[in-house]
Amino acid sequence: MKIHEIFPILIAQDKVDNHDEFKENYYDDLQSLWWNGYENATPEHSERTSLHLKPEFNSIFESIGRSVRRYLELMEVNHQIFYVNITKSWIGYADRNTPPLSLHLHNDCDISFCYYISCDSTSDKFCLHNYNNMNEISGQLFEVNKKHNTIKKFNKYNCDRYTISPQEGTILIFPSQLQHSTLKKENLEDRYCLIGDIKLCLKPEHNIHHQSCPHPSLWLEL
Q1: Separation between Cα atoms, residue 195 and residue 114, nearest integer Å
Q2: Residue 90 forms beta bridges with which residues?
Q3: Which CB contacts under 8 angstroms, 24+ apart, belong to 72-79?
Q4: What was the pLDDT predicted at 17?
Q5: pLDDT digits (tens, 9 = 90+) for 98-142
Q6: Are 130 and 160 within 8 A, CB to CB?
Q7: Are 84 and 65 in contact (CB under 8 A)?
Q8: Element containing residue 129 per DSSP (H, E)
């Protein structure tokens, strides 16, 4: 049987160019930049979601920008006609007492990323969820039960979630509307990550395209 795999969701995992330098210079400052999830329901409540505006972090965000453009190249997107705009960025932290990150998605953006500054094999796994699997051709066909199941094991055609082990010095890039969470592990080493959201917009000279978003210079604020 020939298999035609269509409509896959692309999640990219790339190395961050200057990770070692960034960690050496700024690791001690990360705790003060943490958005403190224990006290705030969302990062926005912390008023610490604009780390991309700190000049000292320019080099790391330039590296993230290169990874995002490589991600777009995988989909054969002509990224040269777009500006890649980071709209929010914040520090995420977890230790052995940190509760797992609940299922959520990111609003008002196109691409999200998670750069692992510090982690190890005991860190929480990154979990992606798919609740609209078109292969589920009969009601709840892939739903699992303790005793009675209609599938023998999970594979990429029938699974409704996928986990990725964090690797220090790498960045995960994924569609912002893809629901995600974390899968709790031991967290023997404190895990720090830089998380952020991106909005694409056309460069003004390419506004002849109807795809994506016009540049803000062409907007009218009322």
Answers
A1: 5
A2: 195
A3: 74/10, 74/12, 75/10
A4: 94
A5: 889 999 999 989 999 999 999 999 999 999 998 889 999 999 999
A6: yes
A7: yes
A8: strand 125-129
Query: Which residue type is seen at 141?
Result: L
Residue with tokens 């009969």: 138
Output the pLDDT for position 131.
Answer: 85
- Secondary structure class of 49 (helix, strand, coil): coil
CA 90 to CA 115: how far, in whole Å? 11
φ/ψ (deg, to 5) at 12: -100, 145
DSSP label of 84: E
Query: Hey, how many other C-beta atoms are within 10 angstroms of the C-beta on 128?
Result: 19
Q: What is the DSSP letter of 131?
A: S
In angstroms, rounded to a whole number, what is the distance separating the alpha carbons of residues 15 and 28? 22
The 10s digit of each residue's pLDDT in 1-31 is: 998 988 889 999 999 999 999 999 999 999 8
* The model scores a pTM over 0.90: yes
Total residue count of the chain as it appears in this document = 222
